[in-house]
Task: structure prediction
Amino acid sequence: MVYKKHGMKKKYTAGEATAYISRKNARKKLQLSLADFRRLCILKGIYPREPKSRKKAGKGAASNRTYYYTKDIQFLLHEPLIEKFRAHKVFLKKLKKAEGRRDWKKADQVRDQRPLYNMDHIVLERYPTFNDALRDMDDALTMIFMFARIPKSSTVHAELVANCRRIAFEWMNFCIHAQCIRKVFVSIKGYYYQVELKGETITWLVAHEFAQEHNEDVDYKVMRTFTEFYANVASFILFKLYTEDNLKYPPIGQKDYDDDEYVKRQQSDLESLTLELRKSKAIEESEDDIDELAAATGDEGLQKAIEQEKTQRSQKNIFKGCKVFISRECPRAPLAFLLRSLGAEVSWDSELYPGASFKLDDDCVTHLVIDRPTAPQKLGRQAVQPQWVFDSVNFGGLMPTNDYVPGAELPPHLSPFVKEGQYVPPDMEVLQSKARGEDPGIGKDSDEEVDEESDDEAEDLEEEEEEEETEEAEEPPAKKMAKVAIEEKKEDKPKEFKKRDVKAAGRDKQEPKEDVIEAEKNKLARAAQTSKKRKRLLERIEKSERKDRGRIEKLTNKRAKIDAAKKAEAKKSKKAAKLD
Amino acid sequence: MKAQLHDIVMPEVEEPKTKRAKFSRKTKKGWKKIDISQEEAALEQKRFEEIHFGGDLSKTKDEDLFVIDRKPVKKKKELDRTCYHDKILANKSKVAAAVPVENRPESRKSILHNDNMLKRKAKIVDVARTDLSKKLTAEQILEKNKGLNNNYDLWSANTLTEKQKFIPAKHAKHLRGLEGVKAPKHMKFKPKMMEKVEKVSVAHAGASYNPDYDDHQALLLQEHNKEFKKVKSEDSYKEKAKPKNVATEEEMARESMRGLGILPDEDDDDQYETEEESTEPGFVKKPVRAEDRKDKKQRRKEKRVLAAQRAVRRKKQMAILLNQFYSIKKIKKGLREHEKELEKQKEFRKEKQEKRVPRIGVLKADMNPDQDVKLSEELVGTLRQLVPEGNVLTDRLKSFEARTMLEPRKKQKRHKQAFKTKWQQKRTFREWDEQFEKELKKEEKMES
Result:
């Protein structure tokens, strides 16, 4: 018999050894299978943690195990879902038994008694406020849009797929209504969208159509669980968003079920993104006149804010008045989504998809989005490639269509998601100025020297404007019509806007951010004189900035060299041509 | 309409045969004789009418089909400018476009099942028994009871009645008699990596479907470097895995030729070896002789000498130490430098710790997964010709793992059979075969 000595304590009875619990022990405590345990943790938002000392947490064993906080697991003990999981296990046993005996009647009975659960309390527990939930929508939407397109299988039930489809369409329809789309990037993976809702920026990815291959390395059960939870959160969010905007939710009402035809039509409208969302109450919305407000206040900060709001409003409606016909080879859903959310009316081949509102031959069509080498010509109608839409969204203005004519070599599709301080290719400036309706002096000056032009830019600008005016007289009417929209925009904007620094405008529209960063840095510099820690922080920041600057300089130099070489070559070839 | 009727050539309908042949239907031969051409023709006719006239012709009134031409109108025929091939390709069918699969109405059975489901869903939240017994439709029940199908405002306090609400603490009391079970405080704080890593990381600008030249090159370089590193490390493993001190082929060949007088430098080798043999030193311990033994006097003297030497050494040491007093500044400087270095190391370690990815399982998470890339020659100018890359689901899984939301896992492959099955011929067969072979050989011998 070993006696406990005075002041001795048994090892591993306190501290890290008890704060952490290994996955195996947690499962034992909860009496759950590994699959059920994983599912529960995903639904409840309980993640594995890394202990500070593996050896202590493992009670002497330092192997790479998965650990959880013991308190988390204790909290899980009270979860009612566990009961439901057990009930489901029993249900499966019963079903298997009935089916094994080929007693189909009994099996049907059992199947009808499938235990159901709801996880509202978990949603509320994990997201105490609405904005908390919105912040997590990035993940949710990417998963939901992914699952909306997965074929049903033994691991992915049709019910979940249908639910995801519904949520995806309801979300897109709401985004169209709220006009909240800010950025879009067409990558080889799919479409990245960014919206701004209730002060939160939400980015999500939608894969290209027909692109997804089945990957056997992915555990579909785990992904399904994530999606199940996110779908629940998303539907709560949608309810709140719809009702806060005075819209009825669900958009296709349950009361309308008597009229089958009507519901069917509504359903197809929802899926073709042409549904007019129903208002729950008839309230006349008085539009606040911003100009009046601006005149009334003398506050500088407010003025600035109003100016921003103005530009944002104009960007929200860049396609207003456009009637766009989407040709059948173009991706219909993303184009319809973007065009409609920025004010355009869209239509497509009525045989391709329901919900078409006008035909290609109609005179009202102003733009034809087509992705073929040639397009049928018609007076008063512009044929453009799909990229015109994406670039217009990103640059906040209608791009001139002559760069996007079918068959033409397109300008590069630049990512609007590039962070501040990163390298911006010179094409960006050209495109930005084009979006503003200016004629950039870069690119066309193949035979003149660049230096001459850069000497007096201000004069040049005026000259170019004059040139445009003279050009207008000679242009065919079809081109003219499309130009009207750009022209109008031009007049709206004050001249200062033109001279503004171009780099800051396009990729990251939040200009005040820079000021904030600058102020923060100044503050830090002052504090650095007193504290070592802050001094080091400042040093680190400056070092990374220097590094970035160096990289940018390198790239711009490289680009300049390439441009110069190109120009020289062009000159040579021209001379050679002259000699010939 | 007149012109149309004239233009369209009606498919000929065969006259049905009046006489029915009598034959036995007992055998398969007889079955073939049933003539369904009549039915097929009728169906074809019906389809034809549906496509060209939008319904049954016999049921339409004559007035709809024909117009009595009262006035002779002299109207110039409008020139049809559509191309001939367009005319051929145009869709003339009057049958409406097929409804997309996803829009098709549900089957009756699934609706029934759904109905049942919704009713039972209503049971999760307290629903008045009277409502359930009233034979209300599922939709009506849903409408009446908030808390089903997420059709209520979760975040405002007063949308649900007390009965409809689920309160975890209440449940806990029901379960184990405990009251006021609260979520642990640390649940508010997510793991470090969840804050650090972006939820949806947008693809590199060079992964655009129509990328800028610089961006694309940057992405290619980045991925190339990654791949290069990988290949290099793989190669180094291979190098390390090679067995050491194993003779190369060249050495083997050389060894086999040794002593035959073929090798040019063989003679030198031999010489060297002989030299070595001659200069071999012997390690024989010398025996201690009596005359070599030290006497007491000698030992004392030795002791004295050693003590004197020690004293001198100590004196010198002291002098050095005393002298150091004058170089305190220098020493201090050295100490400071040492401290600085220590601090640097500390900081470095701290930074490393910050950058470290927490290990939450047996496997390591892939923090910098390979990006999808299109090579320069694979780039196409238009969206139509684009062949998409990557898999969103794989991406998501990697993102979850990088954010330590899931422990990294690898799908286990099924084990192959441990031992190969051996096949053996039965003895009787084998004996027969052997005998047969023997006979064959005999015959061959006879022939030769």
